[in-house]
């Protein structure tokens, strides 16, 4: 077996275009790894120059005809230019990564069909290969979306969704919020750290119900009971044994002891040490209602 130093010498346009696209995508990946967070003014043209330029140069070194490699370069640069004008939220390396990935798929589709058609196999095997190829085409849109979602973290320079919590609205009415903390066999310092964080809620009207469910060792739940007593009447502690339903059973018991005036119920996991507690005022509206808030507190 011999290895040619110029494997693209004499190759047709489809093969050169496929090789060029793969090389450009590899260059884009390298650029993205080293330069993904850039917001520099000339990041896009420089990324396109380095990515497509290096792919073009390597294709020539591998024996590609200059004209064929140049046509592939022009097609890739044109698609990247169009995408760059329509997609404003991606960095230069991000635009290059998206374009080279899509370009590789577009060229790979006809190249793959030709490859299967030219394989020296019998008709039955060829039919099975084409059937599998058709199934792969059906999954292509899902794969594109998955790749975009995974790479978007590195590609984007700006995000449409707000990245900070909403500012608390001024209000004259503060509905009672009942916060339920279910716990079972947790280290007492962990639960107490969570309760200490809840003390600092920037909201004037709330209660905290701690439900210890089926913890056999009193050395685990009694320190939490003592700590709740030290935090004042807002904090109530319940220790129950033989209660079915695990965490759901504890939450159902907490609901039975919730202040009837409560309009919002929040659940906080006791297993997290000193959670970052947001302003409850930004989580609820100004109109009277009954509802629940998940673990966003």
Report on the structure:
- With 297 residues, the chain is α/β, with parallel strands linked by helices.
- It has two domains: 13-155; 177-293, Alpha-Beta Complex (Spore Coat Polysaccharide Biosynthesis Protein SpsA, Chain A), CATH 3.90.550.10.
- The chain contains nine helices and five strands.
- A five-stranded parallel beta sheet has the order 3-2-1-4-5, sandwiched between helices.
- Helix 2 runs parallel beside helix 4 (92-118) and helix 4 runs antiparallel to helix 6.
- The longest helix is centred in the middle third of the chain and has 27 residues, at 92-118.
- The chain starts with 12 loop residues before the first helix and ends with a strand.
Summarize the topology.
Elements: H1 13-35, H2 43-61, H3 66-86, H4 92-118, H5 123-138, H6 140-155, E1 177-183, H7 188-199, E2 206-213, H8 218-230, E3 235-240, H9 246-256, E4 264-267, E5 291-293
Parallel strand pairs: 1-2, 1-4, 2-3, 4-5
């Amino acid at each position: 077996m011999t290895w040619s130093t110029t494997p693209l010498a004499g190759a047709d346009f489809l093969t050169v275009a496929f090789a060029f696209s793969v090389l450009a995508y590899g260059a884009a990946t390298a650029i993205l790894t080293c330069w993904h967070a850039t917001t520099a003014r000339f990041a896009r043209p420089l990324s396109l120059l380095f990515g497509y330029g290096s792919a073009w140069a390597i294709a020539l070194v591998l024996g590609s005809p200059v004209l064929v490699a140049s046509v592939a370069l022009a097609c890739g640069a044109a698609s990247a230019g169009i995408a760059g004008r329509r997609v404003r939220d991606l960095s230069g390396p991000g635009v290059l990564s998206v374009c080279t990935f899509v370009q590789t798929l577009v060229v790979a589709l006809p190249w793959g069909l030709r490859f299967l058609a030219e394989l020296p196999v019998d008709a039955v095997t060829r039919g099975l290969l084409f059937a599998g190829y058709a199934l792969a085409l059906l999954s292509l849109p899902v794969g594109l979306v998955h790749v975009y979602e995974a790479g978007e973290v590195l590609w984007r320079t700006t995000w449409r969704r707000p990245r900070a919590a909403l500012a608390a609205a001024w209000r004259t009415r503060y509905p009672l919020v009942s916060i339920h903390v279910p716990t079972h066999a947790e280290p007492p310092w962990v639960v107490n750290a969570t309760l200490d964080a809840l003390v600092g809620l920037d909201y004037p009207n709330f209660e905290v119900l701690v439900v210890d469910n089926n913890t056999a060792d009193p050395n685990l739940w009694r320190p939490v009971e003592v700590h709740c007593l030290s935090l004042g009447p807002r904090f109530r502690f319940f220790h129950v044994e033989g209660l079915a339903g695990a965490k759901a059973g504890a939450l159902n018991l907490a609901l039975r002891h919730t202040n009837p005036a409560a309009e919002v119920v929040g659940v906080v996991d006791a297993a997290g040490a000193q959670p970052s507690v947001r302003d409850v005022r930004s989580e609820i509206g100004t109109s009277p209602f009954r509802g629940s808030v998940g673990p966003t507190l």
